[in-house]
Amino acid sequence: MTNIKQFNIAGTFIALDDSCGARPLPVTEDFWQALGSGRFGQFSRLVASMSYDKDWATWEKHPAGEEVVCLIEGDVDLLLDLNGAETVVRLNQPGAFVLVPKDTWHTARVKAPSKMFFITPGEGTQNRPV
Predict the structure, then answer these.
(1) Count of structural domains, the chain
(2) Hey, CA dihedral for 41, 43, 49, 54, is it positive or negative?
(3) Has residue 80 been placed in a domain?
(4) In 30-117, alpha helices (H)
(5) For residues 1 and 48, what is the distance between their CA atoms, to the nearest angstrom?
(6) Residue 29 falls inside a structural domain
(7) Nearest to 46 by CA among 10, 71, 16, 69
(8) CATH for 35
(9) pLDDT tens, the chain, 130 aa long
(10) Which residue segment(s) compose the domain that 27 sits in?
């Protein structure tokens, strides 16, 4: 018999692999360091939810594929650097989302406290200061 457990995306993210498997990843204080060190092993996408009350401190890009950025609540301007031109997409309705193109620098300006949901192809992610 399979043991079915309930999780909460605020404290447990999800690793999706290329064979359509999924496994929970507990979010601890050292989560991002553990992720970067490879402690969680191989997977192709990270499903996560995070809350923001201030602008992101960095730009990021994901060379492994497109990222889904979805607003759960709040008001956010998502800035994308498309071929050297900054494009702003306003996410201000629950459920509004953007498909960030592969290898595109992006960041967020938080206009009101917000919760967002992400499906991220994290391999090779790069960051730079805003």
Answers:
(1) 1
(2) positive
(3) yes
(4) 31-37
(5) 28
(6) yes
(7) 16
(8) 2.60.120.10
(9) 578 999 999 999 999 999 999 999 999 999 989 888 888 888 899 999 999 999 999 999 999 999 999 999 999 999 999 999 999 999 999 999 999 999 999 999 999 999 999 999 988 889 999 9
(10) 12-129
Report yes or no on 2 lying in a domain.
Answer: no
The closest alpha carbon to 60, from 127, 9, 130, 129, belongs to 127
Q: Annotate 55-79 with DSSP letters as a single string.
A: --SEEEE-TTS-EEEEEEEEEEEEE
Give the whole-angstrom CA distance, residue 5 versus residue 87: 41
Tell me the pTM. Answer: 0.92
Confirm whether 115 is domain-assigned.
yes
Supply φ then ψ for residue 4, to 5 degrees. Answer: -100, 125
Residue type, 25: L
Q: Compute the distance between CA of residue 67 and CA of residue 75 in angstroms, rounded to an integer.
A: 19
Find tokens 């996408």 and name the residue: 45
Rg (the chain; Cα; Å): 15
* 3-state class (DSSP) for residue 33: helix
- Pull the structure tokens for residue 116: 């967002």
How large is the greatest C-alpha to C-alpha distance in the chain, in angstroms? 54
**Helix/strand/coil for 15:** strand
